[in-house]
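Re: the pair you flagged

First of the two:
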Amino acid sequence: MKTAKPYPPETTGARAPGLEERLLRQLEWTVLRRLDGILQGDYRTLLRGAGIDLADLREYQLHDDVRYIDWNVTARLQTPHVRQFTEDRELSAWFLLDLSGSVDFGSSDVTKLAVSSGFVALLARVLTRHGNRVGAMLYGTRVDTVLPPRLSRQHVLNLMRLMRARPRDIAAPGAGTSLAELLNAAAATIKRRSLVLVVSDFISQPGWDDALARLAQRHEVVAVRLYDPLEMALPELGLVTVEDAETGEQLFIDTADPAFRRRYQAEAEAREAALRDALARAGCDTLELSTDDELLEAMLRFAALRRQRARLKIGARWPPHLRPGTPAGAAA
């Protein structure tokens, strides 16, 4: 039996006093307690920071940070090698939050913004409970709010308040969202290697994929992609007026036309394939969040993603014939 989605409800008008406190407490009781020991525990964690103590050397691999190349070893062995360090438990995490008009969309009672708010609030609380610092950059039509990393519960409440209270600006006609602006601003702002979570529907002007790849070369990046099922296939609703949430442009369409719905689905599938290809080329992990997802299930998928990343890191430290899971004598 499915549980109710504990996403923060949409509000209009004046903000109720203490609303963020009540919402966060609800998330802590309904979801966070069930996650204890999955994402982080007292002795082992799936969320690690960068260290300074040298632990090992290994061959350079695609998307490794070139700053960690050991040039002396590389010169001796004639093969690029990178330094690996003992990882700290504490890390700095940054949320790059796309709050443009398109995230206000939702075909049911849950919008992409509500999904984003619930996920960010819960993960930020998971991180800060164990001494990690959390920062955020908020983007509407421009990057206008930067929260430096802090680790208090009040800091998480302030982040929730900013996400919910921020007005949705209408972009200039033909402009739309420029996700590259947010990613480039993050690259200039975040100096220390961090866990960076880009929470967006990735409906943007072209060029963001190169900026994301550059960010992933220096930081550990997770693309948290928001979407709604209605964006994939158009139901038969008859004659309807649709509006671009970012530019305000309106269009009158006939959803009863089978040929139009087929073209819509074909365009959606092509856009989906291009998006996934761009995220893969950027070299970052991807977590997809739908408006019909359960928040607990989404967090468990995130935990599985981190577990897979941890296994890949461990495997990269061992020579091929000694990697965990390699049958004895496989290198013979």
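Second of the two:
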Amino acid sequence: MPLENNKELSIVIPVFNEINFLYKLFDQIKLYFNKESVEVIIVDDGSTDGSNNVLRELKEKKDYKFFFKLIQLDINSGKGKAIQTGIKNSEGEYIILQDADLELDTKDAKEMFDMIIKNKDIKCIFGSRYLSGKLKKNNYFFNNLIGKINSLIFNIFFSQSLSDVHCGLKILHKSVIEKIKLSVNDFGIEIDLASQIVRNNFFIYEFGVSYFFRSKAQGKKITWVDGLKSFYYLIKVRFFDNSSSTNISIFYSTIYMAYVGSHFGMGLGTTLFIIIFAIIGSILGIHFKVLSSTIIFLFIYIGSLFGQGNGTTLSVVIFFFSGLFLAKKIKKYFLQSSFKNYF
């Protein structure tokens, strides 16, 4: 249902030097979203190619029904900052995040919107360039590889199953927006947004979208440097942007599992085991607080008392998974109690 201000949907579009795409983008928006209940918020992120002049021209034509809000940032501050600015100035019950470069089809945005308003249980849909069913054109192997690796790491860190965490096309209900506090100003906004949605216990649905890559000559701005920075953001949002109880649990689990790893292998092999077990411990610390982690470690210790050589390793593995199963059950039991910060 539309809000009292009659804005059912806000479309937030960050723009930086996209003069070659703006006329076509505007035509597509008019084709699929030309309604009085829609507001289009374009944030010009300090463009220097004349994009702002084109945007002002399009706004002054008034050959559209939607409400057109144009926001000008004095200097280029990054995609994340532009999105944050657009969201803060939005009034719709739903918010679509849409890139301006036409790599993603506005028709898909309309399909996602039609889908979410028909099912009130769905609060968040991410577009995915890797799901089948739509046209795709992509010659950038490295960017594609980094995107898939990042999605895999994100899934491991947050126990999700997303295929494309970096896709720029998303739709969110206002209840999701009200729960999150975005702070990343560059392309890392995608990871920041996804991590906060998951932390606030919203389920992320995915919808396969078309993708038509553009080259650097056509104005593509994301580079391999942004790909490397995304690894930093993954580490940051998972291991540092946590409650104090979670950070304590991560430290506790990492140290204990590193100690467990020191009992395996010989020489360089021991060092490798320590590193692997420490990584496993850090991930355990994310999902289990101190008491439930202790249950897992206790089972590992008991398992180490059985067998010899490879038999001990097998025993530790069996007891580890047994402890993991029990810890999950106990965590679920205490999740709604006052002891949840300990389990």
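The radius of gyration is 24 Å.

-B.
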